[in-house]
Amino acid sequence: PHWNMRYCVEAFFIFILEKRDTGFKAPLIPRFVEQRAGVRMGKVAAFYRQTDSFDIERLYPFRHMFPSFRVLPKSCWPTFGPGVSYSHAVEYETAFVDPTLYLPYLLETYSARGCKITLCDLTSLSEVTAMYPTASVVINCAGLGGGPLSRDTTMYPIRGALVHTRLLQMPHGWSAMIDADGDGTGLSSYIISRCSHMVVGGTEYTGDARTASDSMLYERIIQRAQQWLLPSVSEKDVQGSWTGLRPGRVEVRLEVEQQGIDTASLDRKACGGPIIHNYGHGGSGYTLSWGCALDVVSLAESCANEPSPTSPFEHAKL
């Protein structure tokens, strides 16, 4: 949807604004220009096999935003494994987030502003109000748990598996390589370079809630990446593996529910004030994060009749 694209644009601008002379200074947003924040610029190369799937207008409607975006000529393509035949490729520069640095940085920034985190098990949003009876608004951003907390039956798990390897050199100084089409069964290939390791993925198995380690699947991920992207990567480079669940939904739920409305679907009376839902981001959490966050702030301040922050999307007049 168009608003999903807007969220992507806003996050992109927030990640790179302080790296460029734009004059925009968003309030309350951390300075990602700091190296310890784990945000950096890098180039991506995405490869496509099927000619009928390569619609540049549909795939990259905001391609003019990306520095040095170009259709990559075949003369710049690296050598792939046997049997691999791509038809198109693009290259562009974008922001990369290293969660091993980024998440601790966000937590540090959050705590420095006097905010607190309480870990607990919840079965309903009314329990939040019981814990914080003076709260004027409840924000439901519980990921995969956001649906059950609000009795939303449209949520579903998306099983994702990936492998960490030692750092390897990618062609042309790329920070990421992507096989954009995948194999059609939920297994795709991508390689992302981080500060201390590489991420090799991955899977997207809709409705699969298994999180147990799967050594055979990890082997398939490495073997496919070796064939379709980077022949130099192998199982001897593996440093670790991981399986988790993405919070799937047909679309992101980002809206306000006022007290007394649709109380049959949610224990609103016990919750008291308005509830802002912000969940269902699938595998695009970092990409959608800041755009959604700005909308949440705007909704919360509207509930309190306070001015909302300027959006970088509006600032850019896109």
Q: Which key terms come to mind for this protein?
A:
single chain, 318 residues, alpha+beta, nine-stranded mixed β-sheet, three-stranded mixed β-sheet, 9 helices, 27% helix, globular
User: Taking Cα atoms only, what radius of gyration do you get, to the nearest Å?
Assistant: 21 Å
Strand content is 15-25%
Give the number of helices.
9
Uncertain ranges: 18-29, 260-271, 308-318
Indicate the structural class: alpha+beta
Order of helices and strands: HEHEEHHEHEEEEEHEEHEHH
Query: In total, how many beta strands?
Result: 12
Mean residue pLDDT: 84
The residue fraction in helices comes out at 25-40%
End-to-end separation: 16 Å
Oligomerization: single chain
Q: Judging from the principal axes of the Cα atoms, what is the shape?
A: globular
Characterize the largest beta sheet: strand count, sense, and whether it forms a barrel: 9 strands, mixed
Characterise this structure.
The chain is of the alpha+beta class and 318 residues long. It contains nine helices and twelve strands. Strands 1, 2, 3, 5, 6, 7, 8, 9 and 10 form a nine-stranded mixed β-sheet that branches. A hairpin with a 7-residue loop joins strand 6 (176-179) and strand 7 (187-193). 28% of the residues are buried.
